[in-house]
Design a protein that fits this description.
Structural class: mainly alpha
Radius of gyration: 20 Å
Largest sheet: none
CATH architecture of the largest domain: Orthogonal Bundle
CATH topology of the largest domain: 434 Repressor (Amino-terminal Domain)
Number of helices: 6
CATH superfamily of the largest domain: lambda repressor-like DNA-binding domains
Distance between the termini: 34 Å
Number of domains: 2
Number of strands: 0
Helix content: 55-70%
CATH class of the largest domain: Mainly Alpha
Strand content: under 5%
């Protein structure tokens, strides 16, 4: 590894440590305002049906297991934040997720 790059990385970590300790630090902090909405099991199922996907296809589409999809749709488990973001995109802009890139 380049010595200068390593030095910069260590300096960045030191600044992050200062920031976390609530001390003055030379860094820019960005926060995303997006808070995913909670989805009910029926909403998740409606999204899947609207996309005309089976549970196995939907699982592959979201890079998760069929058991996870089944658990979401039955209300046994809730999707994590990243899955909720994908579900919101699938609900609001399904064509965006369904397009295939070569």
């Amino acid at each position: 590894m380049n010595a200068e790059l390593f030095k910069d990385m260590i300096a960045g970590f030191a600044e992050a440590k200062k920031y976390r300790a609530r001390r003055k630090a030379k860094l820019r902090v960005s926060r995303l305002a997006f808070e995913p909405v909670k989805m009910k099991p029926a909403q998740i199922r409606r999204i899947r049906i609207r996309l005309q996907l089976s549970q196995p296809e939907f699982a592959e589409f979201l890079c998760t297991s069929v058991g996870t999809i089944r658990s979401w749709e039955q209300g046994n488990r809730t999707p994590n934040r990243s899955a909720l973001r994908l579900l919101v995109i699938a609900k609001e802009q399904p064509a965006l997720l369904l397009q295939r890139r070569a």
